[in-house]
Amino acid sequence: MWADMVDDQSWTFDNLLPFFLKSTNYTAPNMELRAANASVPPPTNGSISPLGGPVHVSYSNFALPFTSWVQKAMPEIGIQPVQDFFSGLLLGSQYASK
After folding, report:
1. Mean pLDDT in runs of 10 for the chain (98 residues)?
2. Distance CA 72, CA 79 (A)
3. Whole-model pTM above 0.85?
4. Hey, is 82 helix, strand or coil?
5. Cα 35–chain centre separation
6. I need a surface site. Which of 40, 41, 57, 78 has the fewest CB within 10 A?
7. Taking a C-beta distance cutoff of 8 angstroms, is the pair 39, 30 a contact?
């Protein structure tokens, strides 16, 4: 949307993705420590990598019970789950990375 607003396609998600991948590295959470109802789907579209740069991205090894209930409630008010926020799609809900 920003690329269209400023009429500069170098600002599209696909054009910025290589820089994002160079600056971040992803570590999956320890699923043995997370509750079964707090699962985190793997990132999609190669939008995040364990081979990136100095900014570490992951999910905590725990999820508060409240967040699990919120995840169940979101679809009831029209907010659907998304696979991940690393794909450029920000309209939806999922456990937040840190």
Report:
1. 92 87 83 77 67 82 79 90 75 75
2. 10
3. no
4. coil
5. 19
6. 78
7. no
Report the relative pairing of strands 24-26 and 55-57 from DSSP bridges. parallel
* CA separation for the pair 7, 85 (Å, rounded): 24
φ, ψ (nearest 5 deg) of residue 49:
-140, 150
What are the structure tokens assigned to 93, written together? 């809900």
Amino acid 63: pLDDT: 75
Q: Which residues contact 1 (CB under 8 A, 6 or more apart)?
A: none
Beta carbons of 24 and 53 less than 8 angstroms apart = yes
Q: What is the reported pLDDT for 19?
A: 86
Instruction: Please report how many Cα atoms fall inside a 13 Å half-sphere around the Cα of residue 69, on the Cβ side.
Output: 3
- The pLDDT value given to residue 92: 84
